[in-house]
Structures
1.
Amino acid sequence: MLQLLTFLVEKLSLVSNFKLFESSWLDGKDHELPAQRGPLPPPRRGDLLEVPRTIFTHYGIYLGDNKVAHLIPDILPVLTKDEKLISSVITNKRLILGCMYKAATVRVDTLEDFAYGCNILVNRTDKLMKAQAFPNEVVARRAEKLMGAIPYSLLWNNCEHFVTYCRYGSAASRQTEKFCECLKSIIRDQRSVIVTGLLGIISIVCFGMAPSTTLPTILVPFTLWMAG
Ligand SMILES: *[C@@H]1O[C@H](CO)[C@@H](O)[C@H](O)[C@H]1NC(C)=O
């Protein structure tokens, strides 16, 4: 099951460049380093680094000395106390299991491992967030204080929450907000009542009248209708 999941995520990231967080960290060494893609000014300690991917954007806080603090799902800290094992580069399996078990760590990696061949944007969120950023040294100290294992939630506690907490003092995620907006617009769109109703009727036709098909057919459109 896990093998299959890992396989699927790997294939998916190959086909559509959809890298679920750092899903291919295992072979990160073969990729171009960001420095080779034109001259980038070195970031300063406390800067907010952003690595845009196709769907998700990964975030970290630069600590200076080629090191980046970032939050990433990881199962290993739940299973072992072996610091050396935990600090090794995160594999797909660790990441996926971490996601499912809702465990993550705030850890330090090199700039190259963090960027994973993508361009790094610096401080871009300063313009987008309404809050004023702390001085860079404060930002870096806040990040360093949070090192270690923490609970993870894709929506409510992700890598973006970590960096906004460090830099602006309040945990926020524009990716989560966008997702919620999208969900809200689906719920508020009355056509989804019709769509779910039709899907329910099709499932009744295909699988017969049973509580498992009839109940959702009535309850899902009804709930959507009331929530809309
Ligand atoms: C990022 O912002 C800080 C101030 O908050 C500034 O000191 C630093 O130079 C900025 N870094 C870049 C690369 O623009």
2.
Amino acid sequence: MSAPSSTSVAPEHSSLITRRRWVRGAVAGLLAAALVLGVGQLVAVFIDPASSPFFVLGATMVDHTPHTLKDAAIRRFGSNDKLALFISMSVVMALGAALAGIVERRRPLGSVLLVLLGGVTVFAALQRPTATVWFVLPTVAGIAAGIVALRLLIAGTPSLRTPEPADMTRRRFLVSAVSAGALAVVTVEAARWLGAHLRDVVADRARFLVPKPLRSAPAVPPDAQPQVAGLTSFITPDDRFYRVDTALQLPALTSGDWRLRIHGMTDRTVELDFDSLRRHTAVERILTLTCVSNEVGGELAGTARWLGYPLADLLADAGAHADADMLLSRSIDGFTAGTPLSAVLDGRDALLAIGMNGAPLPIAHGYPARLLVPGLYGYVSATKWVVDLEVTRFDRASAYWTDRGWAARAPIKTASRIDVPAAFATVPAGAVTVAGVAWAQQRGIAGVEVQVDDQPWQPATLASEYSIDTWRQWTWQWTAVPGTHTLRVRATDRTGQLQAEQRTPPFPSGSTGWHNRVVSVR
Ligand SMILES: Nc1nc2c(c(=O)[nH]1)N[C@H]1C(S)=C(S)[C@@H](COP(=O)(O)O)O[C@H]1N2
Ligand SMILES: [Mo]
């Protein structure tokens, strides 16, 4: 006769089922989460890559990380800070998903968890700078797919109440798990493929022609670059140029889609595209860009040959009002910078740049257009992927980092760095070349001095100055005696001001202090 429909299960069988339920619950949760992300990415392709649930959560975290923490992240991870964020987010999500799957087995608590997470994500999505109501769709579609997957997968896990032959439940679970996994992979891959082909910014950049400047940047004199192994090169190659931005996903803005709106306290609103831009005169300039987060002795500075259009020319078309004092620039991904209008209009080489080192801007450095204003830290001046310039006032508007406590006005502080010998290097006694760079954009470097231990400061030999807006290499010949020594460096700008000695952190307006290096001499 057939077995009664309800039997008590033998204890050892019960514990086996319990373990299997846990594992299968966790697997179900992970697969459901993969589907949330995959479906979310795929739907986001058709709205805005920035509307995918994973991106929304990551970007929201970046924006709400306290500045000190973010500062630490930039310092710790360098340009890998985003990778670190993605990995930690993935780990947290995987743990949450496994938990959701395990609890779903008894009551639909996992589904409730997904709905709650979806609610939070939808709310965060609507706060994104480029958000439209459509931004809710990827999350809603993803969560819906995740819940369906979770319910179906859980239905395939063994139950204590309805004992089915184990191989039957296992087969059913395997079939649904493999289908869910395959579907997740397909959606993620489809999203990636469509994303690349719908907005092919890579191909657009490859086709982009950088116009010829009216006049090339003055040539770099050979003696601007002392031949010392390990010394920073005067021009920074693109792949060694530091990168700092809040973009978790690089904006994909083609030159055809790009527009620059100039508006606010102006006589008229001007909208430029690349055709109208090319009617203006292009110039080429070599400029050193510096990040406010640079620590004493740090590497967040770089020099490149930039091609672009003087911002003053573009603003002249709009007619900035005399009582305005800020140019608020905005990128396609919502980053903003507030630049003193005086710095844009006082004749310095403030540019809308579209070329870097003889090629279109690399996508990571702002393709197709960014700002550069010599003498100011990047966060108040160097907006990448720039699409909007609003002429306004400091008492009416504030920008991304100023909203997070950083200084509203941030001229670059005089800095100097020892590149050679390397940190904790061991060098033979006798003649040793010490070398490095110093910068004080807009003021220029007038002198660099080096000190060994507590001996008197010695003047270094300056490489020839390219301009007050570029860094300046220096060398110093040291007659090194055996022992452990501390080398220190300090610079003086062309106004006669000595670089500040006191060590202060980057927050809120840039680090100060003299760089030192400990070297062993044998
Ligand atoms: N859109 C956008 N532009 C931005 C930023 C950003 O986060 N988003 N960061 C600024 C900062 S803090 C610096 S130091 C420079 C860095 O430019 P780079 O990455 O080309 O070196 O870009 C500036 N422009
Ligand atoms: Mo920066």
3.
Amino acid sequence: MGFLYRSTRNENETATASEAILKGLAEEGGLFVPDEIPELDVSFEELAAMDYKGVAYEVMSRMLTDFTEDELMYCINGAYDKKFDTELIAPVKYHHGAYILELFHGKTIAFKDMALSILPYLMTTAAKKNNIDKEIVILTATSGDTGKAALAGFADVPGTRIAVFYPKNGVSPIQEKQMVTEKGANTFVAGITGNFDDAQTGVKKMFSDKTLAEYLDEKGFQFSSANSINIGRLVPQMVYYVYAYTRLVAAGTVKPGDEINVVVPTGNFGNILAAYYASEMGLPVKKFICASNDNKVLYDFFATGEYDRNREFILTTSPSMDILISSNLERLIYRIAGNDAEKNSELMKSLAETGKYEITDEMKKNLYKFYGNFATTEEVASTIHNVYAEDGYVLDTHTAVAVNVYDKYKADTEDDTPTIIASTASPYKFARSVVEALVDTGNESAKLSTDSLDDFALVDELEKLSAVKIPQAVEEIRTAPVMHETVCDKEEMESVVKNFLGI
Ligand SMILES: *Cc1c(COP(=O)(O)O)cnc(C)c1O
């Protein structure tokens, strides 16, 4: 089948799905994008009768056209199994006037598991299909959640190694503990003295370094990426939007074809882009509501048409969204420019050189389905507090950004279309910020008592408050020994990777 992926920066660079997954990134920093998204030619009623794996097959087979049915089913069955703590994989729950799509029931209790539990299967299958005899080295920059999810996925997978870089002072203590206690023999984890953008820029630099690629090739290695710049991350993320919609169809909440809104707490723009791709496949979405924290570069972009990263980087209570360069926005820019690699390259060059770019009025018109807003750190805390007061449901800090922005959207528009909110992490992952928000915010002595507790004591506190059992992922790391102690500058990233590979 002729469904090709193409670089956002060079219309002549094409790849099959399996090649695009293996490469991760196109040449010269481009991202692989599908030429066009095929229509999902299965009815919503039929999909509503399928389980998660069934929906996953229907959606993914349309996008990964060079995988056989057997290959894809092997990947899906390997990924969406008992690693998830519910057979539903991604349950939908109604709270605060919206359908909360819980994407945190996988091994590392963040939504990254949805794609990273299948990516290693897709990657090793793609390697086999393409007769790759090199060891694949996954390079990953993480704002906190990708790191552990990727480590968990690739740990001890034959033919692969994985190196993860995280901002040393920019992740939650639980997130850090999850990563540095990773036992897989093929894994490497380093904190960098910089922020997520520094880590991501360093990783992208290694990817586009041709001399380094040749050297690796000589030594029997090749790089790939587990970040959402890899199309193998985005395609599995399209699945749960279709899945959630068809659960609403099954429940009779929406009629097949009725529109919904989706709200996505956004950082690197991968999750919301997957929703957009799902809509191009036929999911009826009225508005894509893009929720940002204090690092509101996307809110400003949707408001003005100018993307400007020249601003202070703010550390918030939703660290996985502390990002000023949203890599996947490039894929949307390419699309709204009419699949124009030249125009996109020009804008991305401007971003690299001046830290900003401005889209044309014509392109801006194509963004009419997007709504952006943001929630401050105080608003996040009060949202967690208030939703808990309503019915005892505990939001994590990232999901609270989304819920707060949804409230603002409704106030702005009075739109009452049924709405799905992507819930991207378990509150246990951010126990300190969540417990502080739950205890009476005006109560000084309650605040003092949380200050004196360590993060695992707060986890116990949260169990009492939420009546949700402490996830296995948290219990596991409580007493686990630290396996990774490297801290380096961003300039040292290449040398620590070589060191890890023994070359
Ligand atoms: C990664 C992450 C996000 C942001 O997702 P993007 O795809 O990067 O926009 C939001 N919330 C949590 C908990 C995350 O781990």
4.
Amino acid sequence: MNPVTTPPPPTKTSTMTYLPALEKTDPEIRDLIIQEEKREFNKLRLIPSENYASHAVREATGSIFTNKYSEGYPKKRYYEGQQVTDLLEALACDRAKKIFGVDHVNVQPHSGSPANMASYRAILKPGDTIMGLSLPHGGHLTHGWKSNFSGSLYNSVPYELDPKTEMLNYDKIRELALEVKPQLIIAGYTAYPRIIDWTKFREICDEVGAKFHADTSHITGLIVGGQHPNPFPIADTGITTTHKTLRGPRGAMILCKEENAEAVNKAIIPGIQGGPHLHTISGIAVALKESQTPEFKVYAEQVVKNAKALAERLLKHGFRLVSGGTDNHLILMEVFESKGILGRDASRALDKAGIVCNCNLVPFDKKSPFNPSGIRIGTPSMTSRGMKEAEMEKLGDWMNEALANADNDSILQRIEGEVKELCQNFQCPGIDPSKW
Ligand SMILES: *Cc1c(COP(=O)(O)O)cnc(C)c1O
């Protein structure tokens, strides 16, 4: 055989074993990590709350800070040995304060749900009335859902979307607020594809004497990248997760006015948590730094451009989009009435085709949450890979074909192969396939 025409070996650049310590102590877990890396590399990930954390974020998150206990706050800790941790936490807080233009930031919440819990605990009494968007309309569990602490500890009176426009109707929200006189109104959602007018919420809160809590978990990357208004300077309290469009590690922050700073800090510890996860906080600090680069701004712009391009393609194929389209990173698509397939069946078929999304209730859904009428899709992960409008069009075509052939495994398999082929041409932040 002519050695010149021999194909090169698989692109393994180094002879070093990947994850060598794990290979020695726990090959089973190492194998699962590599399997997940391959899955994230070879699929189109459309779950709008997911993303790819960078290598730098993951180096920090996997760092030695996991070893240290730091109950308390910089310069006010219970244990000794805080020479470095104090610097780390102060730096993370300073970065966030500058970026979001707020008086106070707490970077210790373990995730978004405890961040909301601590925020409410800081400014409410049990039994107070809260108004958040109802879960089936796109609100979060922690915004007053009945089986969540927020629905049992507080008197939850949810507002809903307008039945015609499927968007926020600020006049209706104001009317409800005048009627129930809540102590708190919550804005910020998990399945709402439109821009939120924070100033309207501020005005309503001021009129009825409520506090205003903003939860930007989904859209924080868009806010930082200049694609969505920033509520934190005018909110009494607010939270964001750090792992969604912001592209940090799994975690959260509370951002608030100075007058609520002490109550917020106390609500986290001793209120609901013990020691902070400093390794996560170091990853959050890195993500905040990355969010200030010109590349991040381009990413945020492209997230929205991609969502609009995908929405247009799906509309062309006859799908019905809740509210008619999107202004942000996500699309909520009604598939039952427009295409005769239930949401869970749709998301399962798409998963077989290498396109990963989640089924979702649509506003005024008549179906059950376990097999609702819609699916929720988003562009952050694909945009982090460098995909643009041309790939979104292709994706829209694949989704249309997969959903029209949801029972045809050979068609779904063919699409899965085409998706995988496309994915080979795009990097993934934090994943290096040459190491496998
Ligand atoms: C994701 C999300 C949360 C909760 O975050 P977890 O980290 O999953 O607890 C809270 N609020 C909103 C609006 C979210 O999108």
